[in-house]
Amino acid sequence: MTTPDAIIDIDPTPLGDDKVLIEELEAEMKNTSSEQPNSSVTKIQNVPRFMFQQRNIEKDYYTPREMPIGPIYANEETDKQRQIKVKFAAQFIKTSGKNCHELLKSIKNEIETLRTRFDENLLADFDNDKLARMLLLDGCSVLQFIRSRVRDELKKFQINNGQASVIDQDLFLMTNQIPFQVLEILMDSLQVDAAVNRNALESSIDNFIKINLMMPYTYVTGNYRNFYKATNEVPLHLLHILQSALLYGFVKTRQNQNRQDQNLLRPLLHILRSALPCVFDKFCHNNSGDDSDSMEEFKKEYFRNIQDLKTAGIKLSSSASSCLRDVTFSPCSIWLRARLKLPQLIVNDSTGRKLWNLVAYEMCPDNHNSEYGVTSYLSFLDSLIDSEEDVKDLRSACILRNHLSSDTEVANLFNEIGYYVVSDKTYSKVKWKIQRYCDSSWSKIVAPLLDGYFKNYWSFIALLGAMAALGLTAAQTYYAVKASADPPSHPPQ
After folding, report:
1. Closest by CA position to 221, among listed 200, 202, 206, 238
2. Residue 241 and residue 205: Cα distance in Å, rounded?
3. What is the DSSP string of 445-492?
4. Is 251 helix (H, G, I), strand (E, B) or coil?
5. How confident is the model over 382-397, as pLDDT tens digits?
6. What is the CA angle 194-99-82, rounded to 5?
7. Helix axes 351-362, 238-248, angle to 10 degrees
8. Average pLDDT rounded to a whole number, residues 36-48
9. Are 66 and 174 in contact (CB under 8 A)?
10. CA 208, CA 180: separation in Å to the nearest integer?
11. Alpha helix locations (H) across 298-446?
């Protein structure tokens, strides 16, 4: 019989490969025990490798073309690209009221903190002095470009509109970022009576973000300062500000174009709900129990695209704001029709690069607080778009504004991004409501009738007119028959 001592006979001095593995594990155990809790700050870093599965995606979407900044491309910039930055930086310093030494010193005073904003692997070739010089040049050039861009003063730098548009895109690439703290330091260092002051630069940054938001500019207001002050957050870089603006604001509520129509029909809808609550709820919602229980049973959505929603009688319209989170579904709302509201989105030559970099930023391994807002929206939009017909319907509803050559190109863009993004639960409740409505008797019986006979207000008015004419004819006939049937009245003799 084997004794217990024989079973636990382990060599206390491992050799060869065993020793290498054990030493590696023990070193990691020591590092883990001494590590601080994960920082909530997402560092500037390279794009996660799994985002490069698509051919040429790195060159097309993640590489700057006119204005590289930061450590990743510091050794790859051409003389022409560097000269552009030098021109912008020199103009900024000239109007700042400070000299180069003073601004460089202000950067060096915070250099240890600024180093922590980067992935340490990116700074292997940068000592503090070299990093400070790079951040001074890049920070000054970025601020001057933004100011000149919004003031339409780029011509004196020999920058045309095409180059300006490309630089816009470059400044929102995930790998082409510097800490926003650098811009804050430079703005704080400005002379009080300088030709340009902090408020003017902050306003320029606001306007620069707004013109790059991929939404109608006339609907945008607010500023990044008030937003971050209200949320008690600190902007990490320009891409982070763009993400926050898309998801949470700097937008104002638009006047709903159908407000008068809604006010006209709301009393009718209220009467129907009050008079026939059981029938209305059963047909519209197909209730079968508690909502939470139903959501647990809903494992996947069966509607495939916009065409499926149209078949179920669901109408599309743009949301009251342009925040990507403003997605709502209302079953049997106006004209007894279900309505899906989505925020407006402008699709042009820059949209693909911005969206790919926003997705990459949200997918960063150290982005622990990411809510995957942009990624979730793109995944939801991908579930609605299968072909150019779906894009055409979204255009007709003023949800997508297509500035590309064709609707097919837009469909391919969102399908390509949707293939790589991970589906999230952000819009699961909206999807569940849509599927619940699609499974209801209302979408299968009543909605086709409404779609066939009540497509617009004129058909509804025509119905009312026909019903009124029929009622008047019936009343006229009734009184005519009654008059002929009654005996004639004679005056008393």
Report:
1. 206
2. 10
3. IIHHHHHHH-SSHHHHHHHHHHHHHHHHHHHHHHHHHHHHHSPPP---
4. strand
5. 999 999 999 999 999 9
6. 105
7. 100
8. 76
9. no
10. 14
11. 306-311, 351-362, 373-384, 388-396, 407-420, 428-438, 441
Between CA 7 and CA 411 the distance in angstroms is 64
Tokens for 192?
């009080």
* Residue 107 contacts residue 187 (beta carbons within 8 Å): no
CB 310 within 8 A of CB 389: no
pLDDT of residue 289: 45
Q: Count the alpha carbons within 13 Å of 63 in the hemisphere toward its beta carbon.
A: 9
The per-residue pLDDT for 110 is: 96
408: Cβ contacts below 8 Å, ≥ 6 apart? 387, 388, 391
Give the rounded distance of the alpha carbon of 447 from its chain centre: 31
Q: Look up tokens 């150019």; give the residue.
A: 388
CB atoms within 10 A of CB 411: 21
User: Which residue's entry shows tokens 């709301």?
Assistant: 266
Q: Can you give the pTM of this predicted structure? A: 0.79
Which amino acid is located at 233 in the chain?
E
> What is the 8-class DSSP label of residue 56?
T
Model confidence over 103-145: pLDDT tens digits? 999 999 999 999 999 999 999 999 999 999 999 999 999 999 9
Is residue 315 helix, strand or coil? strand
Cβ atoms of 286 and 433 closer than 8 Å: no
SS3 23: helix
In angstroms, the Cα distances linking 403 to 109, 166, 216, 346, 397 are 46, 16, 13, 7, 16
Residue type, 466: A
